Amino acid sequence: MPPILSITTRGLNARATIMIIRNLSGIFTGEGFVQREGRRVRDDDCSFVAGPIDIAIDDRGTISGVGRELASPGEVIDGAGMIALPGFIDPHTHAIFSGDRSTEYFMRWAGKTYLEISQAGGGIHSTVTATAGQTSEELEALLRLRLQNMLACGATVVEVKSGYAATAEDELRLLRCIKRVSEDRAMPELRPSFLGLHALPRGRIESEFVDEMIAALPEVTRHELATQVDSFPEKGFFTRESALRFSAAAKASGLPCKVHADELCDLGSSAAFIRAGALSIDHLQHINNEAVSLLATHPTVATMLPATSFFVGIPYANARRLLDAGARVALATDFNPGTAPAFDLQLTHMLAASQMKMTPAEILCASTYNAAAALGLEKTHGAIMPGRVGNILLYSSTGAAAGLTMLQQISISRAKPFAVVLLGSVSEQPRHG
Fold it and tell me: Which CATH architecture has domain 89-373?
């Protein structure tokens, strides 16, 4: 695991000394991504600044300066031979669960579809059963271990969904587990999603189940258990109308929404949720032309999950179509026990390059600024600029591998960062809704 160069200062309120990362060989600041609002980004928008150059961070975890020979009244970290990138953000994961579904991988190659596996008692339903059999302490321990591995791969902010529960009370239990883990300062910053509509339990009436999840929203907001909600409208799971009803109730409670959209077929979910003001629409293998056109002018982020296509054996979302249309595109792991059992963004980046024809600049933007936007954090995260949270990745560099060449290597080599600076200040971040 790469070293964590700084203990996170989350929860501190006073400003005291600052930290300096000194003599970096270069910085991909991502300032151009911010200026272009994450749309139609080019190589120059990575905003690479050649070294020697420094980054200053105050004790709230905020970047206070980027420049040459900055004053250093606080701790000094030697960044010689290092290239700095903004910390990666993983805006779509299902990281709290128990059980193993590796057998499903081979069932799919034997001809079983995702829906057939689910209808036979596998899929999400089997994870719900396994998760219910674990204590909260056991689930939290599993989540911590997974988050440590994700942090080692550069994920400094991670969205974690509930969703593996058969009742609202068990959904709340999962959200409470996520909240307790989020208080651990050695973890990535967590953005919990209340995935109230994931898989309808057997024997339940959909409308009544949706009512139950809506009834849980006051508890979610009262105890700040989630920063957004999510749902899975899909054939064999929930209707688009139920997902929109749940999301509208959440919005009325002050919670924005995300949605799993048009993964297995075109239900028109993407366009409907863009119009509803969703933070992001995720998956999108079967997104229609209307939704693509809407993404060009709306702030909703299109989140691509290429590892899911890799493991399930379904088509990859057409990232080039979305990028060329001017959509804001993010990347995420979709880490879960069945359809994307890989926690590393490095696999996601490699697949984005090889299977989705994304450029290194597009991949970096999709994993930093646009990934932040998919969680409502584009004003505070996703770039190395004064005033933004100081989550920073350091990669070893040589004279022969700098600038864009270095970024190309990172995109396809599955290399982990040499070190991670984790300095996000949860107490300072704005609430959204």
Answer: Alpha-Beta Barrel (3.20)
